[in-house]
Design a protein that fits this description.
It comes from Sphingomonas kyeonggiensis. Helix content is about 40%, strand content about 15%. The protein has eight helices and seven strands, in the order H-E-H-H-E-E-E-H-E-H-H-E-E-H-H. The strands form two sheets. Strands 2-1-5-7-6 form a five-stranded mixed β-sheet, sandwiched between helices. A two-stranded antiparallel sheet has the order 3-4. Strand 3 and strand 4 form a beta hairpin. Helix 1 packs antiparallel against helix 4. About 40% of the residues are buried. Bound molecules: uracil (URA). Uracil binds next to helix 3.
C-alpha cells in the first residue's frame, strides 16, 4: 500500500503513488481520457476537498479544478478565506468520462463500477494525507466519502464523524451552480456553498 514506511518519506510515497496512477487501467476510462488527473496539494494538509471527476480542461491540463467549475471553486474558497495551497484537492474518479458531440466532449457521470475501481486511489491518498476534515462536493464525492449514496440536502453543512477517523462534510458541487439558469438563485446557492466551506474550515479550528 501507499502507507509511508517507517523512516520513509511521505512526499516520496505520494509521488510514487501518483506515478503509479498515471498508468492506471483499473477501469476503462483511461482508454479515452488524455491522462490521469491525480490529487494535488500538501500531503500534510489538514483538509481534503473531493470533487467528482476531472472535466475537459482538467483532462488536458492534468490538474483538478482548473476549468469553469474550478473558477467557481476558487472564488468560493477565497470568499471562505481558505487558501487553496493549504488544501489537498482531489476527485472521486481520476479520469475524464465524456461523450463526444462533434468536437465537444460532454461530461458524463461515472458509474458505480468506475467509482469502485477508483476508490483504491482515493483510499491510498487518504492513507497518506490523513485529513482531519474531508469536504465532499456533490453526490459522487459524498458517495465515495461515506461509502453509500446520500442526499446532499439532507447531509450538507454539518460535521459527520467518519468511521475511519476524521470529520467529513458534504456540500454541493460547484458545477451545479454553473447549471442554474436563475441568476439570483445561483447567487444564493453560491453563498450557501461558501458558508459550507467556511463551516468545514471552522470545525477544524
Ligand atoms: N469537476 C470536478 O468534479 N473535478 C474537477 O477537477 C473539475 C470539475
Amino acid at each position: 500500500t501507499a502507507q509511508a514506511r517507517p523512516g520513509g518519506n511521505i512526499e516520496d510515497a505520494w509521488q510514487a503513488l501518483r506515478d503509479e496512477a498515471a498508468h492506471c487501467t483499473r477501469c476503462d476510462l483511461y482508454r479515452h481520457a488524455t491522462q490521469t488527473v491525480f490529487g494535488e496539494g500538501p500531503v500534510h494538509a489538514r483538509m481534503m476537498i473531493v470533487g467528482e471527476q476531472p472535466g475537459d480542461q482538467e483532462d488536458l491540463a492534468g490538474r483538478p479544478f482548473v476549468g469553469p467549475a474550478g473558477e467557481v471553486f476558487d472564488r468560493a474558497l477565497a470568499d471562505a478565506r481558505i487558501d487553496r495551497d493549504t488544501v489537498y484537492v482531489t476527485n472521486a474518479v481520476k479520469h475524464f468520462k465524456f461523450e463526444s458531440r462533434g468536437k465537444r466532449r460532454i461530461h458524463s457521470r461515472p458509474d458505480a463500477g468506475e467509482m469502485q475501481a477508483c476508490r483504491w486511489w482515493y483510499e491510498q491518498e487518504r492513507l497518506l494525507v490523513k485529513p482531519e476534515m474531508t469536504v465532499a462536493m456533490g453526490a459522487t464525492a459524498a458517495r465515495q466519502l461515506l461509502g453509500k449514496a446520500v442526499t446532499i440536502t439532507a447531509m450538507r453543512g454539518r460535521a459527520i464523524e467518519l468511521p475511519e477517523s476524521g470529520l467529513g462534510w458534504v456540500t454541493i458541487h460547484p458545477s451545479f451552480l454553473l447549471r442554474m439558469p436563475d441568476k439570483s438563485r445561483a447567487e444564493d446557492a453560491f453563498a450557501a456553498f461558501v458558508e459550507d466551506l467556511r463551516g468545514a474550515a471552522k470545525a477544524l479550528s
